[in-house]
Amino acid sequence: MHGESVGLNRIESIFAGLRAEGKTALMPFVVGGHPRPGMLGDLLAGLERGGASIVEVGIPFSDPIADGPVISAAMDEALRAGCGPTAVFEEVRAARGRVSLGLVAMVSVSVVHRLGGAKGFCERAAGAGFDGLIVPDAPLEASGDLRAAAAAAGLTLSLLVSPSTPPDRAAAIAQASTGFVYLLARAGITGERSDAPEISGPAGVLRAASDLPIACGFGISRAEHVAAVTGEADAAIVGSAMVRRLGEAASAGRDAPAEGEAMARELAGGLRSGPRTDAKSSGVGGVRDEPARSASIAEDATPPLSSEDGSAGERVSTDG
Amino acid sequence: MSTLEPATDPDLIPRRLSEAPDEQGRYGEYGGVYVPETLVHALQELEETYYKAREDQNFRDELSRLFREFVGRPTPFHEARRLSGHARSISRSNTAASIWLKREDLAHTGAHKINNTLGQALLAKKMGKRRIIAETGAGQHGVASATAAAHLGLKCDVYMGAEDVRRQHLNVVRMRMLGASVISVEAGSRTLKDATNEAMRDWMGSVDDTHYIIGSVVGPHPFPMIVRDFQSVMGKEIKAQSIRHIGKLPDAVVACVGGGSNAAGAFFPFVDEKGVRLVGVEAGGLNSSPGNHAAPLTHGSPGVLHGSLSYVLQTEDGQTENVHSCSAGLDYPGVGPEHAYWKDTGRVEYAAVTDDDALDAFELLAQLEGIIPALETAHAVAQAVRLAATLPEEQSVVINVSGRGDKDVQEAARLIGLRDEREGEAERKAGSDLRAKPKKRKKRRRT
Lengths: 320, 447
Description:
Strand content of chain A: 5-15%
Distance between the termini of chain B: 23 Å
Number of helices of chain A: 13
Largest sheet of chain A: 9 strands, parallel
Number of strands of chain A: 11
Shape of chain A: globular
Largest sheet of chain B: 6 strands, mixed
Number of strands of chain B: 14
Radius of gyration of chain A: 18 Å
Oligomer: heterodimer
Helix content of chain A: 40-55%
Strand order of the largest sheet of chain B: 3-4-14-9-10-13
Shape of chain B: globular
């Protein structure tokens, strides 16, 4: 399914290049229009200098059920500042020439549906300069139109695998994805947990099913988390922690793009550079991985109800 | 649109409407499952559990027993003689259909919501989940969830928009008395949709031990189907009680529509009975301008919200539109996917009633029948009276009185005060103070 209508897509080239050098990717997430409208170009340039290979840009939506409180609050702020999807497309168009990193739109299926449907939206996104799409609330069964439209527009489409996804289904999701498959590092609570996620079970299932690079996100906020996930995966996604840092910088009157750059540099320090720790077991069937997978689910079971503070005990699915 | 003409192409002939949804959870093109992967497994588990429970005689017996002993079902059904008389008095032909009331306000906790929460709480227990969460607008679903949780020994957390916490304080107190925690949601418009977002987010992180009791026929499949089925006890009773008391099926059934659970439950047993008119009544709010109402079927367009495709109030830039209604329970920009299907197939007529007309109907039912309805229900009362006034007297119109209005008396008194002030002002300006008699005004109104 890769690159059906065009040559190698930018996301695919980036991963191919990194793999050839035995390297992994940092994929920060930012919300379009946040912390301030008009800032996206500077932010992207800073993140690139800091060591990001690909940036996910969240398209603001009023009711993002797939995002946690930090990201949904950032989207709300962007919308209140007058920055909706159309304005974000304009910022991406203006920024595209300044950076060579890959740009992936993270967008609710609601917005896709409203802005021209799968075909219309993909054409607009590609036209603005995006290289790929993540639509977190379009699961495998609801992704048919999107897959076709993304391929036709030359965009990758990355579907999500959660720790609760059964192995057969995870394999089908990997096979339906292009560019990379998005592995959620945890099912439960992110935020202040200090432990690094353990993803060898689901990562093994995905490796067995597909060659596609694995990008892992969710609750990753420090260099040691990046190191832990890129021990198995090809990329680490950092969402809430980045968005929170940018928001705090802007509201304190500091230089948000510079802080984004510094944070990216710090996180990039954790990237694996060299062969995977699990390389020897790659290609082994999913059965082996079942016990590990179950164990990681059990750890995430019965999450305590959190404090009022949105940062602690935050329940999210795709915040990264 | 209003009749289902047989189509010539067999592929275009809709299946019996009561056969929806299909295996993909679709009602025509509407419905479906638009959720993060984290929830897919939980929804599949829920669907399987529900299909098994539906066929399980023990489960059905247990639910029937709870309905009978704990809820007080069947709820009463009777004629509203003075309200029918009022409909006659405003009718051009001086005749009107008789109006009948299905008294869900007399169900335990004061609204139909308990039918669904008991059913889903039993499902939660079957799935081995010890905690339930719910979203609530008017607070009725929250109270019904807290009640079911207390009765069946489950922990309960209820998400409620901060604006609704203010408007519906009595229900907040009731939920806390029942042992539930009420979590005030400050995000977005601080109403029902924001409470729903937060409940879904909670569920994504807590799905292993928690069941989300969604309060209406909205959300991803299988929720719209499950809620409709549990609520259909109302429509089944209306059918049986109509035959017993009127001697035939009613000519029309009228219910208010926010998310649409009381309407879905009242209508569903009738959807294949083409002789019965079904009328859903949305919140017309202040007027038809965007942001001033909560009537997606009347003014909206298809879109995805909270996990399914249905009619939604939304902007050109893909955002959910702000909504307004005097009634917290109708103050929602979306509607259940089955209503979208019923609208497009023409099986159900949908109308919108303004805040002012609902407020008039609120007083009307209180003063003519001795029943203070929920402000939500008052929307249905207003439309039913209008409809009855256009029909011959041998016909009958049933209002599904979805809930009682105790929770609304303070808000209604405030709104009536504002209205009377506004009208007094207008009349003073027109120099016609002398004929100001608000009570008469309603009875003289023609539609």
